[in-house]
Design a protein that fits this description.
Layout (H helix, E strand, L loop, with lengths): L4 H7 L9 H9 L8 H5 L6 H9 L3 H11 L3 H7 L6 H4 L11 H14 L4 E2 L8 E5 L3 H12 L3 E6 L7 H4 L8 H13 L3 E4 L9 H7 L2 E4 L18 E2 H10 L9 E5 L3 H12 L4 E5 L11 H9 L3 E3 L2 E9 L2 E15 L5 E5 L5 E4 L2 E4 L8 H5 L3 E2 L2 E2 L12 E3 L12 H25 L14 E2 L1
Parallel strand pairs: 2-3, 2-5, 3-4, 5-17, 6-14, 7-8, 7-14, 8-9
Antiparallel strand pairs: 1-18, 10-11, 11-12, 11-13, 15-16
Length: about 450
């Protein structure tokens, strides 16, 4: 199915419009400005939420943006993609009896103002003569690089894609974050003095040994790989969900969407894929999941959103074969399943019911069933935890001077943009402290980073 470019633009425009100045003032006035605020504790980056909201109420938008950036350099992205219903807004004390404060939309209001007026952090710290290489320009890598630059270090980020930003640029549906927002944040990070080199693949164009000769520390922020295979007949006709989302952001006019689309999976990425298909004109979109709605990995509000879009759900259904006609999908054969004892994920394991095959008609099938772990840990002979790169409390891997952050270390807890940003911030602090100790205790001829002034905001 094809749609006119203007129709596509409208269909995939940001879900929520920006707040008007008057609406932002009214909403900020509702805040109780709690002492020891639960919303701040619920934010993984611990933004001082009452403080930035109060500054909006007093029309000090510069100060509001400064407060956000002090805790989260990627505040514009997080304002859009954070599951605020599960985090800050979910903890709002007004939520028990009233509507919680629209924290995410207020944060977007302040950071949009900062972007429009170029109110970004600048480095005031003295140069330390220490250099760090960061592999991967996704949210974790950008956060880490920016925080290290604020502390006076020289930072170079290496990115294999043509554009920086990671999933923010390529893998988050435009309804939640337009590509330009992610790219503007990368320019902000570059404004701190961080060098971002794109089109350079770690392990192919540059090796760890080469980086260790040039830099004082190396940080792996490589995320995860593509969607794992389903190991079913006809799988070659199934589209990868991340590729589907990327096409919808990079060149939506060229994205072909079927009339009857099946999305395999029930996580947030699967919901995004189903939403794209529905918004671009699919007559019927069905999400197929082998467990029930109680075991889905997508957030409850995402499930509700999908149902509101008219997306159908087929639970307790396990794909077994893609039916093809002239090499193209015409249907997905599934088996009904029953849930058994918990598996390694802690969720009940699906048990296929023999002879229960049924077919769902489809002319396009997309899979979004998680992401594969990259073989980087094995290649570098690093210790792992559940297949993820293992790190200590300072984000250092089993190899001294080599750190890892973001989704590639997320052995526990949910992977999210805001957690990646916090990883980058905490790792930068740990690396800075370790370089300072090394400078004081072992290295001679290196400028001590003691007494560095914090970054300020212009």
């Amino acid at each position: 199915m094809e749609s006119a470019p203007e129709e596509i633009g409208n269909a995939l425009a940001e879900q929520l419009p920006p707040l008007t100045p008057n609406a932002a003032a009214v909403e900020s006035d509702r805040c109780l400005y709690c002492y020891d605020a639960p919303c701040t504790h619920a934010c993984p980056t611990h933004i001082d939420i009452p403080r930035f909201i109060k500054k909006i109420a007093s029309k000090n938008l510069r100060g509001s943006a400064e407060t956000i950036f002090a805790s989260n350099l990627l505040g514009a992205t997080c304002a859009r993609v954070c599951p605020v219903q599960e985090l800050c807004e979910g903890a709002c004390v007004l939520g028990a009896d009233h509507k919680p404060i629209a924290i995410g939309r207020l944060q977007r209001f302040a950071t949009d103002y900062a972007g429009e007026h170029h109110i970004y952090p600048v480095v005031k710290a003295k140069p330390t003569d220490r250099s760090i290489a960061v592999i991967g320009a996704g949210p974790a890598g950008l956060s880490c690089g920016g925080e290290l630059a604020k502390l006076g270090h020289s930072v170079t980020i290496f990115e294999k894609r043509n554009q920086p930003g990671g999933l923010s640029t390529y893998g988050i549906i435009a309804l939640r974050e337009p590509q330009e927002i992610a790219l503007e944040e990368t320019r902000m990070i570059e404004g701190l003095g961080v060098r971002i080199k794109t089109g350079i693949e770690f392990g192919k164009d540059v090796s760890l040994a080469e980086l260790q000769l040039e830099f004082d520390a190396v940080v792996l922020s490589v995320g995860l790989g593509g969607t794992p295979g389903l190991e079913i007949e006809g799988e070659e006709a199934i589209l990868d969900g991340l590729d589907f989302i990327e096409a919808s952001k990079a060149d939506p006019a060229s994205l072909r969407v079927g009339r009857n689309v099946i999305v395999i999976g029930a996580g947030n990425t699967a919901v995004d894929c189903a939403t794209i298909a529905r918004r671009l004109g699919s007559e019927r979109v069905t999400m197929v999941y082998r467990r029930t709605d109680r075991e889905m990995s997508c957030y409850v509000h995402e499930y509700d959103f999908a149902r509101g879009e008219g997306i159908e759900f087929r639970f307790l259904s396990q794909p077994s074969r893609v039916l093809l006609g002239d090499g193209l999908p015409v249907g997905l054969e599934c088996l009904r399943v029953e849930l058994g004892a918990p598996d390694s994920s802690g969720r009940p394991a699906p048990q296929p019911v023999a002879g229960s095959e049924f077919v769902i008609a489809a002319d396009q099938i997309v899979k979004a069933v998680g992401q594969k772990k990259l073989p980087l840990a094995q290649m570098l002979r690093l210790e792992t935890s559940k297949g993820f790169i293992a790190v200590d409390d300072s984000f250092q891997t089993s190899q001294t001077g080599l750190y890892a952050i973001g989704d590639c270390i997320r052995a526990a807890g949910a992977a999210s943009t805001v957690m990646a940003v916090q990883d980058g911030k905490l790792a930068a602090k740990a690396i800075h402290e370790q370089l300072a100790r090394a400078s004081r205790g072992f290295a001679t001829g290196l400028r001590s980073p003691d007494g560095l002034a914090p970054a300020e905001v212009r």
